[in-house]
Design brief:
Roadblock/LAMTOR2 domain-containing protein; single chain; alpha+beta; about 120 residues; Beta-Lactamase; about 35% helix
Length: about 120
């Protein structure tokens, strides 16, 4: 039997320019699974830090009395895109993806992230 988290992460790793991906839990700040990364990019630290991004955006939405939910959060660096996608079925769980900005197609990265969410049955 295949693990849905592993399957989702493998799907993310097929994106051109892939650097790292993870399934994170914003309640604990821990990665539930990860793939990729390097000595220069610690995916566990990235998940913990981006947990605060998700929490902060949720607080801002509440303060602004915005309806709806977060579909994804895009952070654009000079050489990378970082995407965070909370699961619609479990908003405390999120997919995290880092890709090389020169090699990745942002639209395809978002599309693949949405597909990976669909394969997670948590």
């Amino acid at each position: 039997m295949s693990n849905p988290i592993e399957n989702a992460l493998k799907e993310l790793s097929t994106i051109d320019g892939f650097i790292a991906g993870a399934v994170g839990n914003s309640a604990s700040g821990m990665a539930m699974g990860s793939i990729g990364g390097s000595d220069k990019f610690n995916i566990e630290v990235a998940v913990a830090a981006n947990t605060e991004v998700v929490k902060s955006k949720n607080r801002a939405m509440k303060a602004l009395k915005l309806e709806g939910t977060i579909e994804d959060i895009l952070i654009t660096l000079t050489d990378q895109y970082h995407l965070i996608r909370p699961l619609q079925s479990h908003p405390e769980v999120f997919l995290y993806l880092a890709v090389d900005r020169e090699r990745a197609n942002l639209g395809m990265a978002r599309f693949t992230l949405a597909n990976a969410e669909g394969s997670l049955n948590l």
